[in-house]
Specification:
InterPro entries: Ntox50, Phage_A118_VSP1. Pfam families: Ntox50, Phage_min_cap2. GO terms for molecular function: structural molecule activity. It comes from Paenibacillus riograndensis SBR5. The protein is mainly alpha-helical and about 525 residues long. It has four domains: about 5-220, no CATH class; about 220-295, no CATH class; about 295-365; about 400-515, no CATH class. Helices cover about 55% and strands about 10% of the residues. The protein contains 13 helices and eleven strands. The strands form four sheets. It has a three-stranded antiparallel sheet with strand order 4-3-5. A three-stranded antiparallel sheet has the order 6-8-9, with no helix packed on it. The protein has a three-stranded antiparallel sheet with strand order 7-10-11. A hairpin with a 5-residue loop joins strand 1 and strand 2. Helix 4 (about 110-160) runs antiparallel to helix 6 (about 195-220). The radius of gyration is 30 Å and the shape is flat. The chain starts with 5 loop residues before the first helix and ends in a 15-residue tail after the last strand.
């Protein structure tokens, strides 16, 4: 699955709101030209158009919500599990040969994940909550800007603006320059919502990786970590990079564990701040290598050059917003010139600082997300939401879990229904059906154990076929029969068929675990 561009999602939302604002501020323009412009009537019409704008704004924000929530869940849970796997591989011998096999649960240990599921879900929910609050802030600011524009335009027109269009542009200039910057930090600094969303998800994803690594380190009794060293580093992180620490934040370490400082002290002093790109990896004393040392003066100079690049990118986005949101054609043209001017400055800066790389996505007001990609993400989010809804239904009491005897007996040898089903296959020149080898009294407990945990598929219309494939069971439950060749195979895979009044179980071909299809079984 592709990595989500959270900045792009919010930037797309921002430019959609700007386009809607422009559309509503210029509505009735032809009518006004024809009948003659009268200011009180214009203000009244714009206040009426505000209601339409508020509806459009709410739709724009709502449309992005499922994509954002999917992005957060994928990024954080993916980071957590990646952290666990990376740490387990390192400590289980990929980097450190072990003299004997240790009795340590592997990455797929069910109990381990149950213990940590709560902390991961809490991190997902907290981040989703932060970004949801940001979306509410967007709607508040959008409403405020529209109202202020209606009344500020009169002031600018009276002050000498040549036309209503120019007056509107003057009234919206501050907003277009900064974009949606309703997010305010404790120090009073306001930040653009796309930048805030990117920072929030990056920080949460980093914490998820650290939490996954730390949980595995704690389980395996090694609290030592080494922080990466970059040749591009802020003053805040410079004293702390490239050193070994006892991880007392994520791995449960304590000062008595070894001759190293505590990670919590470095973090309290600024390490892993919201825009920090440092990471840390498991350190095995006597085995792991230390990072290559860097020149502090050079690292700081490189960082300042990169910050200058970020400033230039912000200027490019600033004038692109002006170009997109301006009503007056002359103002649009002037903004386009400024875009080219700042792009030229950026090119020269990159030539002077060859270690820097240009990122076109940071210069786009749409954040690098094409409409086609955006639509695909929406489809994916809708699909995942439907699967989540279906899974919740399966697990609820609304879906009966009792075994439907008539349907189930078709897959239990010796029953009347099984013999009838067998005869149907014989008439078609085929072999079947697949059958269960576990006792009938074990079927319902099997369903209750695995219902809602398997693969759920939707058709092109987004509809569920009322089946669920279970591939995580490890015990043989029956024989899968190839209808064409008659070949039989022991299988741990099965499908649960759901109906309004109950369920039945059908053995499935073991190759489904490897994604090879059902090989003609039924």
């Amino acid at each position: 699955m592709r990595k989500y561009d959270i900045r792009g999602i919010y930037a797309q939302m921002e430019i959609d709101l700007i386009a809607s604002m422009k559309r509503n501020l210029t509505r009735h323009e032809n009518e006004e030209k024809k009948l003659g412009f009268k200011w009180p009537q214009w203000q009244q019409k714009k206040l009426e158009d505000l209601q339409q704008y508020k509806k459009e704004a709410a739709q724009i924000v709502k449309k992005a919500e499922p994509v954002i929530e999917q992005a957060v869940e994928q990024e954080i849970k993916g980071g957590f599990f990646a952290g666990i796997k990376r740490t387990a591989m390192k400590l289980l011998g990929k980097f450190m040969p072990l003299p004997r096999k240790l009795n340590i649960p592997d990455v797929s240990d069910e109990n381990f994940f149950k213990l940590n599921e709560g902390r991961v879900n809490a991190l997902v929910e907290a981040t989703q909550g932060e970004l949801k609050a940001a979306r509410f802030a967007i709607l508040r600011q959008s409403d405020d800007v529209f109202r202020q524009t209606i009344f500020k335009s009169q002031v600018y027109l009276n002050s000498g603006a040549a036309s209503l269009g120019q007056a509107i542009d003057m009234a919206t200039r501050d907003f277009l320059d900064k974009g949606l910057d309703y997010i305010t930090y404790s120090n009073g600094r306001r930040v653009n919502v796309a930048s805030y969303a990117e920072m929030a998800l990056r920080a949460s994803s980093q914490r998820a990786v650290f939490a996954g690594e730390g949980a595995k380190r704690q389980q395996m009794g090694n609290p030592f970590v080494v922080v990466s060293a970059h040749n591009n580093c802020s003053e805040l992180c410079l004293p702390w990079q490239g050193k070994v620490y006892i991880d007392d934040v994520y791995s449960g370490g304590k000062a008595s564990d070894g001759p190293y400082p505590l990670l919590s002290k470095a973090m309290a002093a600024g390490l892993f701040h919201p825009h920090c790109r440092h990471n840390m990896t498991t350190f095995v004393p006597g085995v792991s290598r230390m990072p290559e040392p860097v020149d502090n003066t050079e690292a700081l100079a490189n960082y300042k050059a990169e910050q200058r690049q970020r400033y230039m990118e912000r200027q490019i986005r600033r004038y692109k917003r002006r170009e997109a949101g301006s009503v007056d054609p002359d103002n649009q043209a002037a903004a386009a010139v400024k875009v080219k001017e700042w792009q030229g400055k950026l090119r020269n800066h990159l030539k002077t600082n060859e270690h820097l790389r240009r990122d076109p996505n940071r210069e786009k007001i749409l954040g690098g997300v094409s409409q086609a990609e955006h639509n695909e993400l929406l489809k994916l989010a809708a699909k995942n939401a439907k699967i989540k809804e279906t899974r919740a239904h399966i697990r609820s009491e609304a879906q009966p879990k009792k075994i439907l005897t008539g349907q189930q007996n078709k897959h239990i040898p010796g029953t009347h229904e099984y013999k009838q089903y067998q005869a149907k296959y014989e008439k078609k020149g085929e072999t079947g059906p697949s059958y269960l080898t576990i006792p009938p009294d074990q079927i319902e407990p099997l369903v209750k154990q695995y219902a809602g945990t398997g693969e759920i598929r939707l058709n092109n219309k987004g509809e569920w076929n009322h089946k669920e494939t279970i591939m995580t069971n490890d015990a043989v439950i029956g024989k899968a029969v190839n209808n064409l060749t008659g070949a039989e195979a022991d299988t741990t895979v099965f499908m649960i068929h759901y109906a309004k009044d109950g369920v039945h179980v059908v053995p499935a071909y073991p190759s489904l675990k490897k994604g090879k299809g059902n090989d003609g079984l039924s």
